[in-house]
Description:
This protein is an all-beta fold.
Amino acid sequence: MTGADISQPVDEYRWMVYDVDLQTGKIRWERTIQTALPSQAVHQKNSYASETPVTDGERAYVYLGYAGLFAFDMSGTPAWSKPMDVLEMRTGWGSAASPTLHNGRLYVVNDNEKQSFLAAVDARTGRELWRVDRDEKSNWSTPFVWQNERGTEIVTTGSKKVRSYDTNGKLLWELKGLTSIHAATPIAAHGLLYVSSGYPTDSLRPVYAIRPGGSGDISLKAGETSNAFIAWAYPTLASCYPSPLVVGNQYYTLMDRGFLTSNDARTGKERASAQGRVVVTHDLAFGRSAIRASLSQRFSRILWDPLKAWQHRGNASYQSPLSSLVQTRRECGVTSMYFPKNSTVEAS
């Protein structure tokens, strides 16, 4: 599959939001947020509903590049909606960056071919608080809220630069040296921010471990692997689409070709690597994750036990369901999907 594998829309679709009981798989409620012919194509590895919803336990917030930004309470009652323009993406590949929720604000990155931006939206009202333009073209990475010893930063990644903003949209620092196509989202552990950018055909596929407190341009100079604000860097460690994972002092990378690698999270030193079948699951409601690696007879490890009881059938959607624990302590999941207008969803 290549960048030329584009799915052209010919039928009308409906964009749906579902609230699903995690214990039984029963659909508690469903809402249609848009019915339309998609205005742009999408890559076959993407979908028309790839963005993951977020929640504060009182409302679920859904951002879809093909539809807009929507808020529902936990009973499915619409709280507000904010239509947004469908902006042209590179080669018709579609959008994928999810919203991020922090301290009553939604942060949305839309990197596209027309005018990329980062925006902050009031989660209670849907009012846009501020917007800053970005010197980027199409990217697919979700913004990351980095709470560190120096403060709170909104970190965005892209093919040109990593950029960190304060909560008012002021640029704090930036870092050059990423790949030509960027999708992975940063993570944080041990007081460090980890940025991974690894398009497979690029010779530079770096990972950076960044210290807090940076300002201005913190990019590495030629030949450097660290500086005052970069604890370590590895030039060929990153994968393209999966984000990395830190467990204890191990930094795990799931490579696009099936390799699972482990590096020391504090130093970047390589610990182990293996190849084979890797399955990753994550339950946000309880913070439980699982990596099942069946890589060879000598390397098979389960880091956490997964939670699995049911599944739903429907069109493929390359996004993760959002799980939440609502005030009544009833376990539920909220997910957004797209379907042909006359299709159905079944529990199994």
